[in-house]
Amino acid sequence: MKNNLLIIVSLLISVVAIAQLDKGDALAQTGNWKAAITAYQNAPSDAIQQFKLAQAYTQLGNSAKAIIYYRAGFAIDSTAIKPMYDYGKLLVNSQQSVDAIPVFKLLIERDSTNASFHYYLGEAWSGLNQVDNAIPAYQKALSLNEDYRAARLDLIKNLIQKREFSMAIKFAKQGIAADSTDVKMNSYLAQAYMNSKWYDKAIPVFERLFELGNDTEYNRNGLAFSYYSTSQYEKSIENYKVYVEEYNDKEASVFFNMSVAYMRIENYTESIEAIEKAIAIRRPLLDKEYVQLAAVHARNEDIRNAFYALKAAQKERADDAMINYQLAIAADRYFKDKNSIIPYYENYLEIHGKKSPYGTLATERLADLKQAIFMNGDD
Q1: Which is the most buried residue in 68, 147, 154, 280, by most CB within 10 A?
Q2: What predicted TM-score, i.e. pTM, was given to this entire model?
Q3: What residue spans define the domains of the chain?
Q4: Do 123 and 154 contact (CB within 8 A), yes or no?
Q5: Which segments carry the TPR repeats (predicted)?
Q6: DSSP per position, 281-292
Q7: Residue range 104-126, pLDDT digits in tens
């Protein structure tokens, strides 16, 4: 009789426990997490109850409490695979990768064919910037499930970070072959081509991204620079104009590249205007822009303005050997009086010496000028 009573009591407790858990589950399905937690707390304490409380607190974004309940559950049942998987993901998502790594290693020991276990191990390594460990984990996940898009994307991202661009391109192309409309995959392919300096290959990928409606600052600038780097100057200018108008009109390097592009197609007026904009943006360090301005004037056979642009460049970088030598050459072309030219070559040699990159040329030209003055009897 006593044993029967114990059995009945146990059954009643079990029924009550199940009822409380079911009530909590029903509330959880509609997002009423506060009420669900109350229902779970009224159930008897066992591993299932602890795991359900952990899930509820995870949904509320309270990672600290969720972790406490997961660990309490594992103290009762350390073999529960699904809660352990959820726990590991929570650790990754809450930037606790050091703790997540042994969790996923243990899960992989129990089931090495589960691609998600390898993927989240890769995520944990990636969270620690351990690219060399993350890459093989992502590769394993992808080998187990070739349709695992997240694993492919994170693998490509890490390969780009490690500068293994050929491998990144290979995996991106495979992803695009499966879905040519995948914007993220195309974006990574474009980045890999850009980093590889394969600008001719980057161009059609950027164009494809625009077809997919992904006209971003990076993509527009990347397309413009790719056209620029492949000497397609008109198209480069066209895209830089869009970039300046729609994204960023304060980037000196863009106006610098536009100036060079205009110069190459002999549109000197626009070239000067572009480099002057770059100069206005770059102050106070402007040597590169003034050298470009001098190059435009020289191409346009405006020797006077080329000389004064290089004078301005020298003012910015008085210790630059290339600028000082180019200034001497510009003076040589601009001044008719040889006595006015000599100080520029002397200045170069005084600062940089005869063994500098242009030392021999400067020395020889200085000697020629002095000899010409002597032969002509000039003072």
Answers
A1: 154
A2: 0.75
A3: 319-379
A4: yes
A5: 115-148, 252-285
A6: HHTT--HHHHHH
A7: 999 999 999 999 999 999 999 99
